[in-house]
TrEMBL record:
It comes from Columbina picui. Residues 253-734 form the Cas1p 10 TM acyl transferase domain. It comes from the Eukaryota. This is N-acetylneuraminate (7)9-O-acetyltransferase. Its main location: Golgi. Keywords: Acyltransferase, Glycoprotein, Golgi apparatus, Membrane, Transferase, Transmembrane, Transmembrane helix.
Length: 756
């Protein structure tokens, strides 16, 4: 199903999500703030012409520019509005009937000497029905009058945006006696006449009067809440005004979460080069496959006719195999990236806004928890935070985060605060895992660093190129990358202190603690010195990685939000490994971690701490205040979870293979969701199958998980080729990678210059 003309859909079709959220068919509607509306309409003149219903729409529209405006003034007269700061003029002209007076006013704008309004919104009919008591003669006259006005509106449509607002239905039971003749049957007859006559002479022309018929659909759902049965409730009028704003402003402001009426963005130079690269990879793979296959056929074992002995081919194909594997990986990646582009950059598939309900979040959570418990298996080892357990932890956290994103649960503060803990737990694992590796193995080689950096960043770099997004847009990957480098620098700089060295002399433990204290001091200083932080990351070329919308504030905010949790992970790893070395904990199968008494006390404290944090998070009233406390207190629930999960031996000895499977591809799932599960850079939901929300989620989820799994395999395959163990070969590859990024920076600078 292709998206089609989203402007036409926005003006003509949609449905309510809940009671007040309007969802246009096939596209997403942006909620404009007054500053955005002013920027869009600067130096513009907008005119509303019609009766009391159009006057209501006029007031809702100007409240988007100035919420303080009050609905006062002559109800049956013209009402001007001006915003001098932005040079915006919005006028309401009282013409309750489609007649000669309205025609004369519209005709005056078609004459060369008069300045034409940029936007014209017209509509009227109920007064004609009321004054003439619903007579058929009045309808006939209405048709004659609209026929005379239509050519003028079509002429104006060549240079201005002209909208004809169809008449909303009425709630006949609530109408006063003086309005009883205004029936829905009569309104439908007037609307049919307007639709038939308007644009009749310009059906094949691009310049058309846009018929604003969506108001009818909105009114059908909400007119029973009307105060008098004729005029729409305020929330419905506001929705109509927001639709008008989206129709006109989306193509100017290009909001990420406003896909309606937005043209497809043109391909950048870097995107074109990426397309050529993937195309050549696909062609190259098929050519090499054919050559390889033919070579294999020719060199099959054959019999020597003279000696009667079998000859064995002596061909060596390791280089061909490596090249074939490389091209095969890029071939698959190219096809996958095409799907990414079609989903979230081309106007091919539909997109919809998110809408949060408690059931849309909590029912899937219960469902995946049941599945996770069902697939329970014994672990291979029973150490604290063993590989299977950490994969399981990453897996269920990732699934919860995915449900949080698709359900739009960020609007519900208690859920938001708990999800912040899950993101912090990922970073805690980063600190714990990398510290443990360096401390135990003592391997500070370039190979290890390059392997980690490649696996973390490969997919994001490709998406930055293909989807034309900055590196910082995928904020989690820059976060874990920078923290990995901080952990590496902390432990690798002189003096290098590792477990083997510390076992010989206890003073080395103090030296490591001093290093950790220095790290904590630096974190504390940077978190309270935004200026120093921004100076560090504003230097070129770092600024190209960490800027978003022209500054590094977003990066500072993301870093600051979980600034202590990686340090907590490192400290926990140090304490745990020290206790393990001194055999102060029992990690046998089925054994509690400590003595029964100590284990019971720690379990009780952990359960109380876990519950206390949840109660505090659920009682949060202000997101800003809670975010301020979060970096210091999130570790409480993380440590409580680790102790609850590991103290009882029987709990530590089992894991969920279902969650662990997802945990192994958690990074790919987190990144891929941006474009092929969600839409409009996570602001909306991708719609592959419109009209069937549950079926659509099932299909898009299946494709999304398969793609994430495939990308994980591609990344692993390429990591073996791009980051070899041989140091001299690795150095050559690093020079090639440096050349690639230099080229990327050069082309990016060219793009920026052409945009300016």
């Amino acid at each position: 199903f292709k998206g089609g003309d989203t402007c036409e859909y926005l003006l003509s079709s949609g449905r309510f999500l809940g009671e007040k959220v309007w969802q246009p068919h096939s596209c997403m509607m942006h909620k404009y703030k007054n500053s955005e509306a002013k920027n869009c309409l600067v130096d513009k003149h907008i005119v509303f012409i019609g009766d009391s219903r159009i006057r209501q729409l006029f007031y809702s529209f100007i409240k988007l520019l100035n919420p303080q405006v009050k609905e006062e003034g002559n109800k049956h007269g013209n009402i001007p509005f001006e915003d001098k700061s932005s040079s915006i003029k919005v006028d309401f002209l009282w013409y309750p009937e489609v007649n000669g007076s309205m025609r004369q006013r519209i005709k005056s704008w078609t004459e060369g000497s008069v300045a034409k309004p940029h936007i014209i919104v017209v509509g009227a009919a109920t007064w004609s029905i009321k004054i003439h008591n619903g007579s058929n003669e009045a309808l006939t006259q209405y048709k004659i009058n609209i026929t005379s006005i239509a050519p003028l509106l079509e002429k104006l449509a060549k240079s201005s945006d002209v909208y004809w607002v169809l008449q909303d239905p009425v709630y006949e039971d609530m109408l006063s006696e003086s309005r009883k003749m205004i029936t829905n049957e009569k309104i439908d007859a007037y609307n049919e006449a307007a639709i038939r006559i308007l644009n009749s002479s310009s059906r094949n022309s691009k310049a058309k009067v846009k018929v604003f018929s969506v108001s009818k659909l909105i009114a059908q759902e909400t007119i029973m809440k009307s105060a008098d049965g004729l005029h729409l409730p305020e929330s419905s009028r506001d929705t109509n005004a927001m639709i008008l704003m989206n129709v006109y402003c989306n193509k100017i402001m290009k909001p990420i979460d406003g896909s309606c009426c937005q043209p497809q963005p043109p391909l950048t130079l870097i995107q074109k080069l990426a397309f050529c690269f993937f195309t050549l990879s696909i062609i190259g793979y098929f050519i090499i496959s054919l050559i390889h296959r033919n070579s294999f056929r020719k060199n099959k074992s054959c019999t020597d006719l003279e000696s009667g002995e079998e000859k064995k081919p002596t061909i060596s194909t390791p280089n061909v195999s490596t090249l074939e594997m490389l091209l095969h990986s890029f071939c698959k990646l190219g096809l996958i990236m095409t799907y990414f582009y079609l989903c979230d950059r081309a106007n091919l598939f539909m997109k919809e806004n998110k809408f949060y309900t408690h059931s849309s979040f909590f029912i899937p959570i219960v469902y995946i928890l049941v599945l996770g418990v069902f697939y329970t298996e014994n672990t291979k080892e029973t150490k604290v935070l063993n590989r299977e357990q950490t994969d399981e932890w990453k897996g269920w956290m990732q699934l919860v985060i995915l449900i949080y994103h698709i359900s739009g649960a960020s609007t519900f503060l208690p859920v938001y605060m708990h999800i912040r803990v899950l993101v912090a737990a990922y970073l805690f694992q980063t600190g714990y895992g990398h510290f443990s590796y360096f401390w135990v193995k003592g391997d500070f080689g370039v190979y290890r660093v390059c392997q980690v950096l490649f696996r973390l960043n490969f997919l994001v770099v490709v998406l930055c190129v293909v989807m034309d997004r900055p590196y910082q847009f995928y904020y989690f990957v820059p976060l874990v990358t920078v923290w990995f480098m901080i952990i590496y620098a902390t432990l690798a700089i002189w003096p290098q202190i590792v477990q083997k060295k510390a076992n010989g002399n206890c003073l080395w433990h103090l030296g490591l603690l001093l290093k950790l204290i220095c790290l904590l001091t630096c974190i504390y200083f940077l978190s309270y010195s935004q200026g120093a932080f921004e100076k560090i990351f504003s230097f070129w070329p770092l600024s190209k990685c960490f800027e978003l919308n022209g500054n590094v504030y977003e990066w500072w905010f993301r870093w600051k939000l979980d600034r202590y949790v990686v340090f907590h992970g490192m400290l926990f790893a140090f304490i745990y490994l020290a206790l393990q070395k001194r055999q102060m904990i029992s990690e046998g199968k089925g054994d509690p971690l400590f003595s029964n008494r100590v284990s019971n006390v720690l379990l009780f404290i952990s359960v109380v701490s876990f519950s206390t944090y949840s109660i505090w998070a659920s009682s949060c009233k202000n997101k800003t205040e809670c975010n301020e406390l979060h970096p210091s207190v999130s570790v409480v629930q993380i440590l409580a979870f680790i102790l609850i999960r590991n103290i009882p031996g029987y709990v530590r000895s089992v894991y969920s293979s279902f969650f662990a499977w997802f945990g192994k591809i958690s990074l790919e799932l987190f990144i891929c969701q941006y474009h092929i599960w969600l839409a409009a850079d996570t602001k909306g939901i991708l719609v592959l199958i419109p009209g069937y929300p549950m079926f659509n989620v099932l299909v898009s989820t299946f494709i999304f998980v398969c793609v994430a799994h495939e990308i994980s395999q591609i990344t692993n395959d390429l990591a073996q080729i791009v980051v070899p163990k041989d140091n001299s070969t690795l150095l050559k590859r690093l020079l090639c990678i440096a050349g690639f990024f230099s080229g990327l920076l050069f082309f990016s600078a060219m793009q920026d210059q052409s945009r300016h």
